[in-house]
Design brief:
This protein is mainly α and 261 residues long. The chain has one domain. 82% of the residues lie in helices and 0% in strands. Helix 4 packs parallel to helix 11, helix 6 runs parallel beside helix 8 and helix 7 packs across helix 9.
Length: 261
């Protein structure tokens, strides 16, 4: 099955790429259960510490950057590994300290980039509402405005979600804080949007996105059964988000390789 001139990512994208996305993501999660459980526990603790007044924001930032660092590591491993045997060996030998030393800076840069993006979005919406002369205290006026712009805004969000895997792949390839920060803004680059117009990308993302969408709906139902149980509900939520984030970063590098051809 292996070809000497092909990397793991080439094999994965050449035949059943969606299936291989979930297979590689699941193998990353399950082959080193010790690391996976350690990462989930760390994220749980950081999430709980994030609720502390005044200093909670610091823990929230560290939690997000830590999760992104793991995603970067997983994505680069899938993208750069020569074959499945090397991939399995690397997963078994994950060094948490080296992972943080190598990938935390670009992860923090990407987090800050998304924060700036969110602030710009919120600021833009606020200016739009203000320019429209809407009194936010008047529920009727606010609801009327949301009804008017709701569908266009939803379409814009769906379009951005469609190209987000390519942006995520740029974050995965970042080597330092600056590259991680700037990678977020490649969402406005011509290369990202032209790559997203490829039929192969559309087909892959459509199938993968549909599976993730219905999986999220199923999880929402399951999560509602435990929503009233303190700490356990957070633990279950973090497990799901962790699994989803690994799948998403694997799908990002798969999408990148698909458009590279």
């Amino acid at each position: 099955m292996q070809e000497n001139n092909m990397r793991l990512i080439d094999e994965a994208t050449s035949f059943e790429p969606v299936k291989n996305t979930f297979r590689l993501g699941w193998e990353f999660i399950t082959l080193n259960k010790k690391f996976t459980m350690s990462a989930i526990v760390v994220l749980l603790v950081l999430s709980l510490l994030g609720s502390i007044p005044m200093v909670g924001f610091v823990f929230s930032v560290f939690s997000s950057a830590f999760a992104l660092a793991i995603q970067i590591y997983a994505g680069r491993l899938v993208y750069e590994t020569e074959n499945i045997e090397t991939f399995v060996e690397e997963v078994h030998q994950i060094d948490g300290q080296k992972l943080i030393e190598r990938h935390f800076a670009p992860a923090l840069g990407a987090y800050m980039g998304w924060m700036v993006m969110a602030l710009l979005l919120v600021g833009g919406i606020s200016l739009f509402i203000g320019g429209a002369g809407v009194n936010v205290a008047n529920n009727a006026e606010l609801l009327a405005l949301l009804a008017t712009v709701g569908i266009p805004l939803l379409l814009v969000m769906l379009i951005f979600a469609y190209v987000q895997p390519l942006v995520q792949s740029n974050i995965v390839m970042a080597n330092d804080f600056k590259e991680g920060f700037l990678a977020v803004f490649t969402i406005f680059s011509r290369d990202v949007w032209s790559s997203a117009m490829q039929c192969s990308y559309f087909k892959y993302i459509s199938i993968y996105g549909t599976i993730v969408f219905f999986t999220a709906i199923l999880f929402s139902f399951v999560f509602s059964l435990f929503a009233a149980i303190p700490i356990l509900n957070i633990f279950i939520f973090i497990i799901f988000v962790y699994i989803l984030s690994i799948m998403m970063t694997v799908s990002a590098v798969m999408a990148r390789r698909i458009v590279e051809g």
